[in-house]
Amino acid sequence: MTATPTRRRPARSPLAGYLLRRLGTSVLLLIGVTVVTFLLTNLVPGDPVSAALGEGASQNPATREAFIRERGLDQPLIVQYFLYMSGLLRGDLGRSLVTGRAVTTDLQSAVPATIEIAVAAIVLSLVVSIVLGTLAAYRRGLVADQVVRVVTLVGLSVPTFWLALVSYYVFFLQLRIAPGSGRTSATITPPPTVTGLYTVDYILDGDGVGLMDALAHLALPVLVLSLVTVGLLTRFIRTSVLEVLSSDYVRAARAKGLGGARIVLGYVLRGASLPILTVVGVAFGSLLSGTVLVESVFAWPGLGTYAYNSAANLDLPGVMGVGLVVGVIYLVINFVVDLLYGVLDPRVRLA
User: Transmembrane ranges (predicted)?
Assistant: First the structure.
């Protein structure tokens, strides 16, 4: 009798297994984010019932009891959490006590506004930082290196809110070369909502006048955020490039007579890409979740402004919605960074 040959199962790609592990971890972390957000929000001192109903209506026992029963606030905390999760799975984050609209509706307009300035700021910061950081590393100890280090130190030291106020005062109030607050001028009609990003939506709508106005309003907030972010990225890129410059394969590339541009692009920046990718992910997450002061100065209707108004008015549904969005932002960024790690470095896939 001849033995029946056994069919071998196709080997799973190391990258696929790596991504599945990271995806499973992200799901568990997301559940943890909902737990922490819910608990911290419910531990906030104050009376959310009075904040929701107002001082007059909250003094009426019948009205107060009806509100508590309707929102499930008379249930144990664990029951309230599962009620919150059941609504979350349906896409229901509750109704804002400030705007009176669904929190999801408010976030659909606030999140794209913040993404617009954060993406523009991180792209501009990364381009400038790569140039300055690489230049400082190649000119280590020389005048160019000293100038770059001083500029980055100033960028890291200047408070963001002060820089935003000075920029607004100088470029708008004094020089009149930049528009005022908001995403567009009062005379410009907002574009039809497709992505929520005004610049993209104006392009899709073919409105050149609106696009130029949106870019003009975008300039100052992006400039302020970029100046702060450039200071962080440039110093880190300089350190990473210095480490790669002392490696054997860079010295071998120089010995072969390769051109400077080819060495920088093909060897130096590629070798320093993983640590740079990490700090860029952290910086981008900080831009998306920490633009409260800049948005307040320029009256930018983004996530930071919405978070501030919700916290100031004890709008617990709004606060929980913002906390959840910020947590998801960091999880998504970390997952994308892990994905790029696995693509750029095969050794990471086996970790």
Answer: 20-40, 117-138, 150-171, 214-233, 320-344
Per DSSP, 187 falls in state T
Token pair belonging to 80: 């309230």
| CB burial of residue 220 (10 Å; 0-12, 13-18, 19+) | buried
Residue whose entry in the numeric block shows the structure tokens 């060495």: 263
Does the domain made of 103-138+222-349 have the CATH classification 1.10.3720.10?
Answer: yes
Token digits of residue 111: 């999140």
Q: What is the pLDDT of residues 120-154, one digit of tens each?
A: 999 999 999 988 988 888 888 888 888 888 888 88
pLDDT band at 4 (very low <50, low <70, confident <90, very high): low
In angstroms, the CA 252 to CA 300 distance is: 51
Q: Is the pLDDT assigned to residue 55 strictly greater than 70?
A: no
Segments of the chain assigned E as strands: none
Task: Give CB contacts under 8 A, 24+ apart, made by 259-263.
Answer: none
DSSP assignment of 61-118: HHHHHHHHHHHTTTS-HHHHHHHHHHHHHTT---B-TTT-SBHHHHHHHHHHHHHHHH
From residue 86, give the alpha-carbon distance in Å to each of 79, 94, 275, 317.
11, 11, 39, 14
335-351 core/surface letters (b: 16 or more CB in 10 A; e: else): bebbebbbeeeeebbee
The reported pLDDT for the residue numbered 92 is 83
Contacts of 212 (CB under 8 A, 6+ apart): none
CA distance linking residue 82 with residue 340, whole number of Å: 35
Instruction: Name 95's bridge partners.
Output: 102
- Number of neighbouring beta carbons within 10 Å of residue 286: 18
Give this prediction's pTM. Answer: 0.80
**CB 96, CB 318: distance < 8 Å:** yes
pLDDT tens digits, one per residue of 87-105? 888 888 888 877 778 889 8
Amino acid type, 296: S
Residue 159 in this model has a pLDDT that exceeds 80: yes
